[in-house]
Write a structure and sequence with these properties.
The structure is a single chain. By secondary structure, the chain is mainly beta. The radius of gyration is 13 Å and the shape is globular.
Length: 95
């Protein structure tokens, strides 16, 4: 996905790597530095819940304000892993 995800006027890149397993994927955020170079800045935290992969494929992703920046996948908030240590959260309960 290529889009201005943080509202700074410059495109960001979310690289999605699917593993072939139902809920397993890796997502890496690249942003442009002041001098225009692309830098790896974050990965998407865990867990991966039902519907996340489909929502990402459909472009339903944004960065949202927090003490750092979180991600919205459809209407679910997920912590971005800015220091490469997984951030574990609970998936919403299935109806």
């Amino acid at each position: 996905m290529v889009s201005d995800l943080d509202g700074d006027g410059k495109d960001d890149v979310l690289l999605l790597s699917e593993t072939g397993k139902q809920l397993s994927y890796a997502a890496y955020l690249y942003q442009q530095s002041q001098d225009g170079r692309w830098e790896y800045t974050a990965s998407l935290g865990y867990p991966h819940c039902d519907g996340d992969l489909e929502a990402l494929r459909a472009g339903h992703f944004s960065l949202v304000p927090s003490s750092k920046r979180d991600a919205m996948i459809d209407s679910r908030r997920l912590t971005m892993n800015w220091n490469r240590t997984p951030a574990f959260e609970n998936c919403p309960k299935s109806p």
